[in-house]
Amino acid sequence: MVLYSPGRTSSYPTDPVDSGIRIHFLGGGDEVGNVGCVLEDKTGTRILIDYGLAPTRPPRYPSECPPIDHAVITHSHIDHIGMAPWLVGHHGTRLHGTTLTAAVSEMMWRDTYKVSSIEGYPLPWDMRDLDAALGAWETHDMGEWFEIGAWRLRFHLAGHIPGAAMIEIETPEIRLLWGGDMDTRQNPNVAGAKPVKCDILCIESTYGGREHPNRLEEEARLVARVKEVVSRGGLALIPAFASGRCQDILRILHTAAPHLEVHFDGMGTRVTKHWMNNPEHIHQPEGLEKVWRWARKVRSKSDRKKALEADVIVTTSGMLDGGPAIWYLNRLRHDSANAILLTGYQAEGSGGRSLLDKGSLPIFGNITPVELEVSQFQLSNHAGHSELQSFVRACEPRHVVFFHGDTEAREAISAEFTQQPTPSLPLNGTSLNLK
After folding, report:
1. To bridge 137 with a disulfide, which of 102, 153, 178, 404 should be the other Cys (CB 3.0-4.6 Å)?
2. Pairing of the two strands 151-157 and 146-148
3. What is the mean pLDDT of residues 410-422?
């Protein structure tokens, strides 16, 4: 349970910064997701980057944030944005982000609130905080300089999902680049991140020590599997994350197999509408509009029943923890011609992980065996080990801070940099002081 006592339980130090910059992780330092990090220098300028929660069971929360006037949000995934309403409700914090991140935030927060009510986990903010947070946004275009205190900041394309941003920060002493969740590869809906010269680079390490398969080959493997299932009279159920993965899957299928009947259900349909209203963040937005017209949107119970006769259903939740995917799975599991195609990471404790490891998962409260074929595809929009290594070297920093990764991943990528740049592996609740 979260028991924040605003102003009294934060791990953030009270002593002033004498030089350089203090980097203090409230969450996400030595773990994946759950990100929140305070940056401060001797001018007294202090910002928070992201404030999320990890949607595990039970959820994980970052430590309490100290009083903060400005928070910069890199993107709209819940492990980076989920606790922002608490900031606004308790500290009156101004939120900075791209137009698309701000547009999607209400949906993400309302879904978090709904899930917390259903599952009974504690949430330290309420609907009043959510409403206040919606009015706290100050949006910025990519490449547009803006000022916070004595610092100048601007956003760069992160390549993770549309609207995701890296943050370049220019202080009187140093230039810092916050990479956030990023990918240098082209994906169906957003171009890859480009290096930015800096003194200090803070970068994720989710896939440190691991290489991704060739993206185009993996997409082709997915399409081939779908066609195989359909050719034997089955239906391919593709659980996918609402913001990023659903839209990628639809684009892949529309390009390679436009003859298929594909139905699109879940929160991803609403996210896609926001994407189309912010086309400046989308790679070839006219292509997304074609996909939107092609896919059959599920809007009612009768639509959902009709979808059971389709070739493919793309729907949330991506980890089979709820949403329409469970409803479909419960009805499709009796016909062995059908198949489940997982396209993303399946966290410990998730329905998808249980299905992979045990062949069963919770369906409406009951552990249910599922005897369908299950395939998994690696379509991550995080940089792999080689991409991380190349990006770090191209930025030419003096220091590189590897966060957002488990111990094994962070040690693997930091081992590539023994002298220049100097690597740091932060821990939650402790400070780094870099000059």
Report:
1. 102
2. antiparallel
3. 94
